[in-house]
Amino acid sequence: MLRLLRLFGALFSMSLRRQLAFRADLVFELLLTVVALVSSVAALGMVYSRTSTLGGWHAGQAVALLGTFQIVSGLRAAFVEPNIQWLDEQVRDGRFDPMLVQPAPTIFLASLSSCSPLALAEVILGFGVVFVGVRQSAETPSVMAIVIWLVLLLAATAIMWASRVLVAAVVFWALALTLDVVYDSIWQFARYPVDVYRRPLRLAMTYVLPIAVLSSIPASTLVRNANALAIPVVGGIAVAACVLAQQVWRLGLRRYTSATS
Amino acid sequence: MSRILHLLWLSIWRSSLQWWSRRSFLITIVIGRAVTPLLGLIVWSAALPGDSAVATYYVVLLAVQLMTVSFEHHTLSNGIYAGNLGGELLAPKPVVIGYLGENLALRLWHLVFGMPLIVLAAALVGISVEWPAVAMAIPAILVAAALRFVFTYALALSALWTERAHGVVGFGETLIFLLGGTAAPLGILSEPLRSIGQALPFWSMLGMPAEVAAGTLHGSAIVAAYFVQLGWLAAGTALVVGVWRVGVRRFTALGG
């Protein structure tokens, strides 16, 4: 585990130096991140200009939820997407083969071996949005609520990684099927409180798809009611999702027969 | 003119067949394009429960969105990056024909594959549209489709200057989302936001035809909206011609 962390650190450092070399791109990416975030907050502001609550969430609470969503989205964009989005192409054209002979777990190399440090700007801005949301909320969260929120954020990140790997692993069974866009589409539903959705959709997003645990549950503990019970529940889901992702990945690797002869 | 139309038809036909062979991927793109109007429908239905006008607007917006999608950052920009533009400049036809044909083919498939989603959303929220309003919106949809193509094409041409054309188009799409009527129907916003939004080109690309079809825009407001829309189309066309002329002069083909 320590060896993987050291490897991860070295790869992060390399990616960071590569991105800092292109300063105009850096400024442009930062600008895009800020514009996207301002746009999301403004869209939420438009909704709250016509209503005081949305699914029982006040404006400040919804802003904190949006910030939580941005943090997990930023972590996804920084660490997971730069690798996993190419998996289907790599499997199709044979570039996946070299990963199998490298001295590190294939699932690690395929999902976390390079990163886009600039996307971490979204994470930093996300924390800022959460802070603004908390300031707008009527109640100030206790230290315990903040700790629970941070733990749930970690669990949400693990669930994000596992679910993304599970979706990408479909390529081992169906080479022509690319579900990235569908995953992205479902991901967008985590922008808003899960209570906004009608009952069948809400149940699906709570018990079938991990939408509620990505943003609604962590944000709820921070700005609504801190519930320590959420830690074992969401933590259990995170562990189960990671184990499932690894098992499915192994099964997929067994099916993989390389694109070349 | 008939030769150009014939070439355009051939391009649409060829692209349609090519995309049909990738239909599973196409369906995922359709879902991707449908998600923001659907989210708008869900969120605004929760914010304003019982307001059938908002629900109707978002279902119509979903249809307009699927009929006006533009992917020139993938077709044109990626073609420039791959060095395909050099060959196209030598072909005895305007370069835009191929991209316009692919655009129209993609819109056709978006409508076909998105139709079940539109019907399902309409049935679930129980929309009520008046057919005269829909008929009045048809020219607006056509102009919106042209305007969105021109807008995306102009932004995609930034690939002649920068490797960040996808980011440039993404920025444009963020503006369309925020000011075009997806984040909120402009009609329910307060002044001066509404007037500013209606004067900008983004509403003409998406929200305006949806408002006409949903019946939330009436009389002289429709006429004024058509004038704004046509004005932006003329300005956008002039812009894209100018950007193309400047860009193609600095283009140095990729490859050897």
Briefly summarize what is shown:
The complex is a heterodimer of chains A (261) and B (256). By secondary structure, chain A is mainly alpha-helical.
Assembly annotation: heterodimer
Q: Radius of gyration of chain B from the CA trace?
A: 19 Å
Gross morphology of chain A is: globular
Order of helices and strands of chain A: HHEEHHHHHHHHHH
Terminus-to-terminus distance of chain B: 35 Å
Query: What percentage of residues of chain B falls in helices of 4 or more residues?
Result: over 70%
Uncertain ranges of chain A: none
Mean pLDDT of chain B, to the nearest integer, reads: 90
Mean pLDDT metric of chain A: 87
The chain pair forming the largest interface, with residue counts per chain, is: A-B, 33 and 29 residues
The rounded distance between the terminal residues' Cα atoms of chain A is: 34 Å
- Strand content bin of chain A: under 5%
Major sheet description of chain A: 2 strands, antiparallel
Shape of chain B: globular
Q: Output the structural class of chain A.
A: mainly alpha
- Give the C-alpha Rg of chain A: 19 Å
Taking strands numbered 1, 2, ... along the chain, how are they ordered across the largest sheet of chain A?
Answer: 1-2
Count all strands of chain A and give the number.
Answer: 2
Describe the structure.
- The complex is a heterodimer of chains A (261) and B (256).
- Chain A is an all-alpha fold and 261 residues long.
- Chain A is built from twelve helices and two strands.
- Chain A has a two-stranded antiparallel ribbon.
- In chain A, helix 3 (59-84) runs parallel beside helix 8, helix 3 (59-84) packs antiparallel against helix 11 and helix 8 (143-168) runs antiparallel to helix 11 (211-223).
- The longest helix of chain A is centred in the first third of the chain and has 26 residues, at 23-48.
- Chain A is globular and about 60 Å long.
- Chain A starts with a helix and ends in a 6-residue tail after the last helix.
- Chain B is an all-alpha fold and 256 residues long.
- The radius of gyration of chain B is 19 Å and the shape is globular.
- The two termini of chain B are 35 Å apart.
- At the A-B interface, helix 2 and helix 9 of A face helix 2 and helix 8 of B.
